[in-house]
Amino acid sequence: MTHYCDIAPGHPYHGPYHDAEYGFPVEDDERLFERLVLEINQAGLSWLTVLKKRDAFRLAFEDFRIERVAGFDDTDRERLLNDAGIIRNRLKVEAVIHNAGVIQGLQREHGSFRAWLDLHHPRSRAEWVKLFRRTFRFTGPEIVGEFLMSTGYLPGAHRDDCPVHRHILAAGPAWQRA
């Protein structure tokens, strides 16, 4: 079985993501939201497609500013659905906007999206999936698992012998504290 640690190093898109982001703890709510948006949009597509469109996503979703995205209206929805730079799927666009509003509620109730994640950690992957399905839209097992691995809440982003793995351990991911 090929692992991300085998294909990513040296690749112009996978390499930087693998080496500097994938599996590292994320503290900023906008960056957490970005990861959730990217994972939602990856469903049914390759991760390379999403990484190539990442800059366009940042532009289309105003650098993933939760307050702005939560306030998107029908004009914004149409703009997004006509933006060839991103993945133009109505269900995904609607989920992103809805989920931004949900995150605003979590921020009001818990102080931040990250605090909400920390409150529910540790959980098994199956428990996380149930929680996300109750809380968000368009969050199936693969999306939730990758989101949580990519942000340091679940282990498995890197093989133990991957050179990046020791940097992740030094950064203190949530799964290590479980």
Automatic annotation (TrEMBL):
<dbReference type="InterPro" id="IPR052891">
    <property type="entry name" value="DNA-3mA_glycosylase"/>
</dbReference>
<keyword id="KW-0479">Metal-binding</keyword>
<protein>
    <submittedName>
        <fullName>DNA-3-methyladenine glycosylase I</fullName>
    </submittedName>
</protein>
<feature type="binding site">
    <location>
        <position position="5"/>
    </location>
    <ligand>
        <name>Zn(2+)</name>
    </ligand>
</feature>
<feature type="binding site">
    <location>
        <position position="18"/>
    </location>
    <ligand>
        <name>Zn(2+)</name>
    </ligand>
</feature>
<dbReference type="GO" id="GO:0046872">
    <property type="term" value="F:metal ion binding"/>
</dbReference>
<keyword id="KW-0862">Zinc</keyword>
<dbReference type="GO" id="GO:0008725">
    <property type="term" value="F:DNA-3-methyladenine glycosylase activity"/>
</dbReference>
<dbReference type="InterPro" id="IPR005019">
    <property type="entry name" value="Adenine_glyco"/>
</dbReference>
<dbReference type="Pfam" id="PF03352">
    <property type="entry name" value="Adenine_glyco"/>
</dbReference>
<dbReference type="GO" id="GO:0006284">
    <property type="term" value="P:base-excision repair"/>
</dbReference>
<dbReference type="InterPro" id="IPR011257">
    <property type="entry name" value="DNA_glycosylase"/>
</dbReference>
